[in-house]
């Protein structure tokens, strides 16, 4: 799993946006169904655009059909890795 901390978050410069890649394509239709079933906070899904956005433990998560995942409000790569593992367990049926 490739994780990079990219630019600082606009709302809090002490936190970063982690750019990650799952390494597999994501079925956005299945993903949106999974996220609806768990009542993901602030959920926005666009099958046409191939992206889902939701809140998880105070962080904004965007998952793209390509397998790219952006997690906002991250402090370290270890924190990003921990969040990615949780996200993958959550959405594994959409991979």
Could you characterize the architecture of this molecule?
With about 100 residues, the chain is α+β, with helices and mostly antiparallel strands. It has a single domain (about 1-95), classed as TATA-Binding Protein, CATH 3.30.310.10. Helices cover about 25% and strands about 40% of the residues. It has helices at about 30-35, 75-90; strands at about 1-10, 15-20, 40-45, 50-55, 60-65, 70-75. The protein has a 6-stranded antiparallel beta sheet, with helices on one face. The two termini are about 15 Å apart.
Outline the secondary-structure elements:
Blueprint: E1 2-8, E2 16-21, H1 28-37, E3 41-46, E4 51-56, E5 59-64, E6 68-74, H2 77-91
Antiparallel strand pairs: 1-2, 2-6, 3-4, 4-5, 5-6
Average of the residue pLDDT scores: 91
Cα-to-Cα separation, first versus last residue: 14 Å
Q: Identify the strand order in the major beta sheet.
A: 1-2-6-5-4-3
How many β-strand runs?
6
CATH A-level architecture: 2-Layer Sandwich
What helical percentage do the residues reach? 25-40%
Low-pLDDT runs? none
Class by alpha and beta content: alpha+beta
CATH structural class:
Alpha Beta
Radius of gyration over C-alpha positions, nearest whole angstrom:
12 Å
Number of domains: 1
């Amino acid at each position: 799993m490739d994780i990079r901390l990219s630019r600082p978050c606009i709302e809090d410069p002490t936190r970063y946006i982690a750019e990650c890649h799952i390494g597999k394509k994501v079925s956005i239709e299945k993903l949106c169904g999974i996220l609806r079933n768990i009542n993901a906070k602030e959920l926005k899904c666009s099958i046409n655009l191939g992206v889902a956005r939701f809140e998880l433990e105070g962080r904004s998560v965007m998952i793209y059909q390509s397998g790219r995942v952006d997690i906002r409000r991250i402090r370290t790569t270890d924190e990003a890795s921990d969040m990615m593992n949780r996200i993958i367990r959550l959405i594994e049926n959409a991979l």
